[in-house]
Design brief:
The complex is a heterodimer of chains A (about 240) and B (about 260). Chain A has about 240 residues and is mainly alpha-helical. Chain A is about 80% helix and about 0% strand. Chain B is α/β, with parallel strands linked by helices and about 260 residues long. Chain B has a domain of about 70 residues. Chain B is built from 9 helices and 10 strands.
Chain lengths: ~240, ~260
């Protein structure tokens, strides 16, 4: 409850400040933001934009996470592969995902494909790096136990490597999910005319600070809910471990 | 003389230009308990790893049941010293034993009964739903032994299994191990740095010399079984063997310096 004191105080201050300042094209008092929020829900624009952004974010997250996980596990298991791919990975990884937009735009044009591709590009790296470290960090003694029991390579991955690495891989997935939402909204703000990012741009340029702020707060709520949901899943899945 | 189950013939092992085992030759009779002792650097753990098929010798021949050792075998189980690292922390005690049963292809419906029997054998009855992290060191090592027994091994390779345990727990586990050896007839190669433990457990003790590892002394232990933590350890025969081994080890350490 104490955590709510400061936000409530700031909202109250914003309300008073905005009202004293009078009508404005750049800021709106929280009460008007709430009204605009209700309007966006009623006319369906909020849900439509949210749906578009989440489809792109989850689509990209899924593609990126699968590629990153597969590469990370392979690199974690094989020293040779790790050395062969080290340079390409280290060269591609620092490229800001936004910098890929022009190339992706030429290849894919506007729409989901563009956004999913860029989100996937951004999500590959945290998954790859974490999965590689998680797999390479599996207790060597456990791998020796697998050898002593003559487990097949497949059984070793399924029974030893995957369960040992899974908690850290899930952390990577949670981080990648946060990255996915950020990058999806960024791509929408930069070029893609759909989703929450595009709505933010449109209302900002239309001098509707109430709607712009309503969407901004909503983006925060969606991101928060996403992270909380994944934290909860993490606690449920791996919380019991000593 | 009975046919031997484990045979080392002039086994040498080098890492790079460092010779760890400098030509080991010995053999073990089925059902025998052989203890390897020696100062650090004498290659006793390495010798055990060769016997378990975890490393291949550079030259010489190591064979088990008449066949050259080409790699790990399911009828040879390894009890590692660091039990905490050798157990799956995300599986319960029952699940950890199950791992070995899964490896040997034991049908799913037979597993619960066998797991219960194995946990009972090592004194962990009623602990099947505990995770390793919730168990004491002694219990964890018991669990690892249960998993090894689940393989139905003809031989157990035990690498300083009780080295990290407190004295009381260690004695309990020594007696339990002897009881398991008696009941299963398993051949046991036991590595330890504790001379008294080696004499107490072994039918035979081999003392290794370091740099490179080679056999320095071989002692037959003729103490009667079952052995007793108090009576055996204070018997004159035990004390005489201990003296003999102690003199050898400290002689070897003195010369190594």
């Amino acid at each position: 409850m104490k955590g709510l004191v400061l936000p409530a105080l700031l909202i109250a201050l914003a309300e008073v400040g905005a009202r004293l300042h009078g009508p404005s094209d750049v800021i709106a008092p929280p009460s008007q933001v709430i009204v605009a929020f209700g309007e966006a829900i009623r006319n369906g624009s909020l849900m439509l934009a949210t749906r578009d952004t989440l489809i792109a974010a989850f689509g990209g997250l899924t593609v990126g996470a699968i590629i990153g996980l597969a590469l990370g596990v392979a690199l974690g298991l094989s020293r040779t592969l790790d050395r062969v791919l080290e340079l390409p990975v280290e060269v591609l990884r620092p490229i800001p995902s936004v910098a890929v937009i022009p190339v992706a735009l030429i290849v894919l044009g506007f729409g989901y494909g563009l956004e999913i591709a860029i989100v996937a590009f951004a999500c590959v790296w945290p998954m790859l790096i974490f999965a590689r470290a998680a797999v390479a960090g599996v207790e060597p003694r456990l791998l020796e136990v697998a050898r002593a029991l003559k487990l097949s390579p497949w059984a070793t991955v399924a029974k030893i490597v995957a369960p040992a690495a899974l908690p850290r891989i899930f952390v990577a997935f949670r981080l990648a999910a946060g990255v996915a939402l950020i990058v999806a909204v960024t791509v929408e703000i930069a070029v893609n005319p759909q989703g929450l990012g595009a709505a933010l741009m449109t209302y900002g340029q239309a001098l509707r600070p109430d709607l712009t702020l309503a969407f901004l707060v909503w983006v925060g709520i969606v991101g928060f809910a996403l992270n909380q949901g994944l934290l909860l899943a993490e606690a449920r899945l791996f919380g019991g471990r000593g | 003389m009975t046919a031997s189950i484990l045979d080392f013939r002039d086994v040498r092992l080098a890492y790079g230009d460092q010779l760890v085992l400098g030509g080991l030759s010995f053999s073990m009779a089925p059902g025998e308990i052989l203890c390897l002792v020696g100062p650090s650097g004498c290659g006793k753990t390495t010798a055990l790893r060769v016997a378990a098929g975890l490393v291949a010798p550079t030259s010489g021949e190591a064979s088990f049941a008449g066949a050259p050792i080409k790699g790990p075998r399911r009828d040879v189980a390894v009890v590692f010293q660091d039990y905490a690292k050798a157990l799956l922390p995300w599986r319960t005690a029952a699940g950890n034993v199950s791992l070995a049963l899964e490896a040997i292809g034991c049908p799913r419906r037979e597993r619960p009964g066998r797991i219960a029997a194995l946990l009972d054998r090592v004194g962990l009855n009623g602990q099947d739903q505990k995770f390793p992290g919730q168990m004491s060191g002694g219990m964890q090592q018991r669990l690892q032994i249960a998993r090894c027994l689940a393989q139905g091994p003809a031989a157990l390779m035990m690498d300083e299994p009780f080295g990290a345990l407190d004295a009381m727990t260690r004695q309990d586990l020594q007696d339990q191990m002897l009881e398991i050896a008696r009941a299963t007839g398993a051949t046991i190669l036991f590595v330890t740095h504790d001379l008294e433990e080696a004499i107490y457990l072994g039918d035979r003790v081999i003392g290794l010399k370091p740099h490179p590892g080679r056999i320095g002394v071989e002692i037959k232990v003729d103490l009667p079984r079952p052995r007793d933590q108090v009576a055996t350890r204070e018997s004159p025969a035990f004390l005489a063997l201990r003296r003999q081994l102690y003199d050898f080890i400290h002689g070897a350490e003195g010369k190594a310096k």
